[in-house]
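User: Hey, my collaborator sent me this sequence without any context and asked if I could get a structure. I don't really work with proteins. Can you help?
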Amino acid sequence: MNGSGDMTLAFELEALSRLSDPQATFEDARNWTRYVGVVSDEPTYVVTNFTRKHRIRQDFFSGPRGKRESLERVGEQFDTERHVLVGTSEADGELAEAIDWEYLAIEDAAEAAGWSLDEGTGEEPDSGGDDREDWP
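Assistant: No problem. I've predicted the 3D structure and written it out in C-alpha cell form, which is a compact way to encode the shape of the chain:
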C-alpha cells in the first residue's frame, strides 16, 4: 500500500483479528502512516487484551466510546491529509463515508499492502480468559 505518510489509519478490531500477524501489520503500517490505531464497539478491555496479546503499540483506540465517536475524535485530533478505516462490513464502509473517512475492506487493504490474512475463520477478539502472558 502506498501512502504519502500523512495518513491516520484505523483498524476495526474485527479486521485486525482477521490478519495472520497483527503485530507485523502494525509495524509495517507505521512505515507509511503517521498514526495507527484500533477502534471497536467492543468494551475497552477486549481491545486492550487483543493488543496486549499481540504486542501492538497503538497511537489511539476507542476506549469507552463506540467506533463513530472515536473516529470523529481521532479525525479532529490527528490532522493528516487522509483518514482511512480498515474494516470488515458494509456498515464500516457506511460509517466511514458518513464521517468523511476513506474506507478499505480488510481483504483489499491486505492485498494492497502485502499482509497475510488468517486462512481460518479469524481469531475472535479475546473477551478475557486465563491466557495472559503478563501473569507469573
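In plain terms: The domain at 7-113 is CATH 3.40.50.1000 (Rossmann fold). You can pass these C-alpha cells on to your collaborator as they are.
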